[in-house]
Protein 1
Amino acid sequence: MTATPESKPHSKWLDAELKYDSGVYNKHEVVMVRGLGATVWDENGRSYIDCVAGYGVANIGHSHPDVVKAIQEQAGKLMIMPQSVPNDKRAEFLQELVGVLPQGLERVFLCNSGTEAMEAAKKFAITGTGRQRFVSMKRGFSGRSLGALALTWEPKYREPFGDAVDNKNVDFVTYGNIEELRAAVTDQTAAVILEPVQGEGGVRPGTMEFIQEARRITKEKGALLIMDEIQTGFCRTGKMFATEHFGVTPDGMTLAKAMAGGVPIGAFVMTAEVADRMPAGGHGTTFGGNPLSMAAGIAAIRAMKREGMAEQAREKGAYFMERLRAIDSSKIREVRGMGLMIGVELKEKSAPYITALEHDEGVLALQATPLVVRFLPPITITKEQIDSVVDAFTRVLGSVNPRAERQAELAAQAEEKQSE
């Protein structure tokens, strides 16, 4: 457990960020300045065990030395070159990436983020099939651009933008419901898009039967199966890609997050048949495939293979979930996950516990639906750090009383109103 300072020094950096930021993020009252492995430090020198990892980006740990070195070397050579002009690092990265992809996925559209990868996936699916309808999953999350939002189930993400989010060509089905899926996929469906483990939807792994039936149904109907591996890819679930757990090969996968060890990157990978049906100039990107991110990606993927990151995630994830399931608390409904992608569903709102973990225990965690505490640590997290996280979570479960805190907050508001 990391002691909480009695008082926080005034932070000019926090003031500046709050003043100039757009306001779309709810800011934590902390300024992080350094990270190494699964530990990050704030500007006051306090350490935290990071179970957020940049929303699942820092799979190989913060500031992995191989990635740092690759970025430093490449920055002194060449940082930008459009994809219309071939580049040595881009070619090397493509060879490295295709070498770890499921067999048959051998063509790559490079971009800068998961949302961009999903936008590319939609366009390649349309040109690849000549169809325009999509099937997506309830509780699924595909990104926040207008195009990706059309595939995202949660209404709170779509509603502020009204009819600008055009999802009239999207059919949503219950994740895991084969009959609903079978009824939704028709000869007008371009693609079924699903996450092998729903992340934002509460850390819900797909079943073998559902994923395999999705593959069978899409083949039967001439639709594409596109697996969203943006959060699950690159060893997070105990395999290089979560799709490998289910024994299927999709027609395409969206990739991003951990692919370059912390540098912005994204990709839609696909079969040659799908790639060849996109007209030249049908899609593009300015920064995608830049030499700097390519160098980082080469170093990151090689580190994953050399250091056995998939096996580490499998073993550490099993240990983490075993320890979480051993917690004696009536507040826990279920512990579920795959590898080091773990969700603890509570019987009450998770936000107060996540806040207490950070403020009182020096542990960063995420929410996934209002009831779920999500743990996405770097794969480099040690078992000792896992023990510390579980011990901290146990203490928080025993000490936080959200109902009492809410009642106290309401009482304080009423008292303030009366004094006005």
Note: The domain at 65-307 is CATH 3.40.640.10 (Aspartate Aminotransferase; domain 2).
Protein 2
Amino acid sequence: MSAMDWSATPLGPLRGWCTELRMAVSICLESRFPMQVLWGPDLIIIQNDGIAPYMGEKYPECIGRPYHEVFAEVMPVVGPLLGQVMSGGGATWSQDLPVLLDRHGYLQESHFTFSFSPIRRIPTAEVLGVFLAAHETTGHVVGLRRLSCLREIAGVTVHAQTSGEVFTDAVGALSHTSADVPYCVILLRDPRTPRLVLRPVATAGLAAVPDVFSRPGTLDPDGLLPEFGDSLVSGRMLISRRLLDRLELQPITDVPSADRALVVPLTAGGDDPPIGLLVAGISDRLPLDGDYRTFLTLAATQISSAASMAHNTAEARYQSLHDTLTGLPNRAALFDHLGQVIVEAQEHARRLGFLFVDLDGFKAVNDSLGHQAGDDLLCAVANRIRRAVRPGDFVARLAGDEFAVLCQNITSTDEIEAVAKRILVAVSTFSSHETPARTVTASIGIALSGPTTSTPDELVRAADVAMYTAKRQGRDRHQLFDGATL
């Protein structure tokens, strides 16, 4: 203060300052809290060292200059507040007020809690200037916003049934914090190809995403996007520059994005390679600091973990509802599906057909040729039944050599019997490759839904009864349940 040539400023030499100005400056300089004194009609800036870190490159040249010249970019927001104080309207209070402040060569999102208070002439109470006490809350506000985003990702993905749902829901959560992530793309590695191939599975903030990621050579060291390949192979976060221009991508958010994006690996955990990448645009109004990188790393970790959990859950559910030998739905899956379609059929006055298929003489194959031959036979029969039924019919393995076929929208007994006949032909033309060859046949019981077969148990029991009737009549045939023997 004392070393500055104040005579070169609108305030003039120190010796000419009035008592009120001297008193305000004394309070400002002796305080450790960030403060400014804005004096006179032009609001000439005087400040203490506590507020200097908030100024960035504006300090120290801002001292002695009019506030509206130094902070022209924030005047649309704070101008009315200053006007209120200078016009005698009293002090203001602003908490976490958002402003775009140019202090490092770009408009940076900033938040401040501050008060503008009048400095009055004694004894007339005329307003001579403004006293500013401020505290920057940018880190707090942005941190809470990012924490809220991470919580939302966790909340929307925890109940996802598939990894695809995880990616879509997570990108939706990220789109709600466009101030931090103007756009993003989740890319998954295609495990079916030996070369590096990435396929977009979810996106936000972009008009469209090209298929360039899956083109040969794109991710090679000399390709269009070498940093993507490097991140995928190394498992490290990398920066992609001019991504929007290189891929001719069009953002659809109002938040200006920088010419950079962070490429963050989606790591499944352990020593497994990344399953893909989270590519997140970087806001042009925030510094790319450690907090920014940590936020996107945590987001990628959450997405990877949720996707892995959803995949494992879906795999476990699939295994619990499918026969491990033939790959067909098992008895539990059949009854679950049967309960649903019976209700739907009743609501729409439609009929269901149920076929109980039991192989003839399967035990002899197992006993004479061994269990491996028996397993091979069951797999072959399962495939033949699948090919013999109508598109949309539900084929399941009940147990052992018992199979089931559920046919919806049956309009006549001829229609369901035609399905049974095709299955009989498909199975009976099959012979084992062993010597001597063993021909396989089947006995099929058929039941249609109706008043006495309106539940899964009733329908399956009726078909089972009809199947045993077919066996007693000589096997290698089908039998329609007539209701008399139930």
Note: The longest helix spans residues 290-320.
Protein 3
Amino acid sequence: MVVDYWSVERYRFGLVIGCGALVAWFTPHPLPIMILVLLSYIGWMLYKLYQLQRWLTNGQKPEEMPDSDGAWEQIAYLFHKAQQKSQERKRKQQELLTRFDNVLSALPDAAILLDADNHIQWANKSAAKLLGIIDNNDRGKRIDTLLRNPDLHKLLEENSERKVTFPSPRNSNLTLRARLLPLQGGSRVLSVRNISEGVQLQKTRKAFIANASHELRTPLTVLTGYMELFEQDPELPEYLLAPLQQSREQAARMQQIISDMLALSRLESQETTPLMGNRVDMPAMLENSIQAIRDTLAADTHRLETQIEPDLCICGSEKDINSVITNLLANSVKHTPPGTTIYIRWHSEADGQACFSVEDNGPGIPEKHLPHLTERFYRVDEGRSRASGGTGLGLAIVKHVMQWHNGTLKIESKPGRTSFRACFPAKRVLD
């Protein structure tokens, strides 16, 4: 049933006025009596207001709620209900925060909440295991004073989402990878993951590939030598000549795969950027490579057009840079149909870079394949690549050589145009 609290107040006010008027009627001074009655009513109302204010100030305890009726009862009840709802809301929020904290604390990745000035606001348990940062002890401290790693400091200054790898300050045998995740208000979360197992697996894989390639090279050389002897034997039956030639071609292809795997393994094992290296005469190297391609792969099938700056030389590893030239040229010839025109350029850019580009007017490469072209053994057309003798490692080698020389490899393709562009930084360009 809905209670009309203001009807109680109207009744009370009417009763006070009526009683006051009745008393004043029988006295010789009715006005002072009525004023006194009204002042008494106002005083009583102020007392109720004081009780309500004191109850609210003391924490709105249910046992201390003012005992009244009418509008005062409703006001006290509404305040009490609002307090109960607020407490319930706080309880649920606290449960949610506790559950969220438990989830983050159970994660194997370290999570550290930072403000805009890199002060630690919160850290989970994994931060203590991986970084030695303890929430209760280090809260409020600057993280760059606790973790003295240049790469991590640079990441914090850049405020970017790139990833950096560094050894754990708690255990030098652990390799960690960190990234920053932006939040609202300038806050950020530093997420740090232990990638030691993946790094070790990568090293094991590289060692296995290198060792297996070395072990396969000697017996394969012996087999190839014997096949060449058999092929030159005048008494060899004619029906065995074709299978023997095919076997020798496949053995040569396997030798090329092994050589590429060894080259790629060597490049991947070089974790730091090399010194500037020796002077590389790119124009002369390009002329030799282009002429070799013209005489072999592109003979009577492709048209090669060149534009080479004659005095543009760079510093680096001549052997590795030559592999970039050879792989890009051979790749463009092998994977385009006869009659294709290939445009080869070696030129300087306005920003000082030196760029080697190979562009053709072939059918192009579907866009979905472009991000995967530099992956090892990746082929757009499996059948055509095998028929052309490709190993699937050429572009992977090119990518690692360019990274090792602080350069970039950019691949663009659309129907009727495919471009491979390898650019060396200005600091490697010789005047």
Note: The chain is about 55% helix and 15% strand.
Protein 4
Amino acid sequence: MTRSKACSDPSGVDLPRLRSLLDRPELERVLRAVRSGLERGGAERVSIADPTEQERRALDELLGRRPSTGARLVLSLGQLEDTLRRAALAPNLRSAFESLGGPLRNPSLEREERERAWRRVFDSQSAEVERLGAGAWLAALEREGLLKRLAGQDPVLAERLLSQALGVLQCLPQRGKTLSALAAECLGDAHGLDEGRPVATLVRRALNADEQSDSSDALWASAGVLVGGGITSSVLALNLRVETGGATASIVDAAADSGEPIYLTLRQLLRDPPVWAPCATPVSICENPAVVAEAANALGADCAPLICTRGQPSAAVVTLLNQLAAAGIRLRYHGDFDWPGIRIANGIIGRHGAIPWRMGAADYLEAEDSGKPLTEEVVAADWDPELGRAMQERGQVIEEERVVQVLIADLDLRVDSGGSHG
């Protein structure tokens, strides 16, 4: 290359000639690789894969070297810098590439600044978090990266989302307020807490601190908030008793006096909760409505208190069980002997302090064959390791309806049923 006169640019870069030499389509990939190598720091050489003949020829001519070969086109950064310096185009590669494409990034400094920005996000709300006793929640958001993901890695948006979530948490618990009303009050947007919205996700994470698998409706209900008005979520009950209360208590008492099953909605349980009366026997919980119907037919008002989950517990079921457990009322559970039934039993026994009711390996083996094979993935019974093994060996589903007469005998208040039958 021919040496030119020194240019007047204080950086020592002859930009017009530099652009004429380097700003060509056939060198575009090479220059991107060089810039990336300079930004990473410490790179001695860069390469591009599967170069075209035009790319290979342009780089070989630029460096004044023999035609190269191979699957990758390799460039020594020192050789390129020496070429530019000898041609008086630039004193060094950094000056050349900053003149061509702007300042080089410093990934290390950028990473440090990002870390400082995120530290400011989490520190900005520390006083309010401490006041709400939500330190574990905030620590989990930081540790798991949930807030960063919801904010699209934008610290400014993240701080706003965190502030909004804390604003909602300040308004909890409620007593039967609808989710949309809560969202309108706290966020100015009636849909701001809808499923999938970032603030809703953050608040639900706070409500689900122990990461239980409750439904979204049940999580909101645990804070006294009704999703969809709480009308459709209900729990089937028989002969529950109350001490005091309003309209809901009157309904419960009237039904128990006549031994009739009733459905209580989530709305009733949250907006007009009765004061539940303790009872000598545990409140029994079953999985299938047929058990409630048969118990009501056989025993009427002489049936011990009974609740039905109707499969996976709804928000209303979870709310009622939480209320009863909080009142110090003992609970016992029976369900289907199949793998989904064991999963439901694990949840109710683990979360609500219920004891198993005729749900041991011996109870399973005593039941008559159903002819229905067990399917789906095996689930271990947390309260009885032998139960799972017995179920796998026998391979039969035992539904509650097949043992309903045994359950009804336990529920008969006119006789001593012999305790909880664990």
Note: Residues 331 and 354 are 5 Å apart (CA to CA).
